[in-house]
Amino acid sequence: MKRYFLLLMLSVVSTLTFGVSLNNTDPLNDYLTAEIERLELEQDLFGLNQADMEAYSIAAIAVYEIDEDVEIEFNTVERLPLDFNAKQGLPNIDWNNFKLFELDEELENDATEGINIIGS
After folding, report:
1. What are the phi and psi torsion angles at 41 (to 5°)?
2. Rounded CA gap, 60 and 79, in Å?
3. Which residue from 30, 55, 50 is spatially nearest to 39, judged by alpha carbons?
């Protein structure tokens, strides 16, 4: 009887050990493998190669701001509370706590570019 019990316990322990060893995966390793595969796929699809890419200065990037008029197709007054007053808290503001800074901007005058002046 002791032999059968010992054999049963040994088989249970070996089965549990085998099952645990199958599920012993490292999540960090799985994540890194997936990231490497994603980067390789992006490189194959888009032809991005880090060695071929040049470093650019942020100052070399030109940003153009487009001022667009916003057209709201409904009456905004209907969405406000009946007793709404936009200037209600205005006297409570301590304007001495604010520091104003004026930023100097260099403007380039391109207005004369491309204009032919007659007589010169």
Report:
1. -65, -45
2. 44
3. 50
> In this structure, is the dihedral angle defined by the CA atoms of residues 12, 17, 22 and 25, taken in order, positive or negative?
positive
Residue 52: name the closest of 43, 62, 42 by CA: 43
Tell me the residue type at 87.
K
User: Which structure tokens are listed for 8?
Assistant: 């049963």
Whole-number Å distance between alpha carbons of 32 and 40? 12
Cβ(49)–Cβ(43) under 8 Å?
Answer: yes
- What is the distance, to the nearest Å, from the Cα of residue 30 to the centroid of all Cα atoms in its chain? 24
CB crowding 8-40: b at 16 or more within 10 Å, else e: eeeeeeeeeeeeeeeeeeeeeeeeeeeeeeeee
pLDDT in tens, 67-116: 888 888 888 888 899 888 989 888 888 888 888 888 887 777 665 555 55
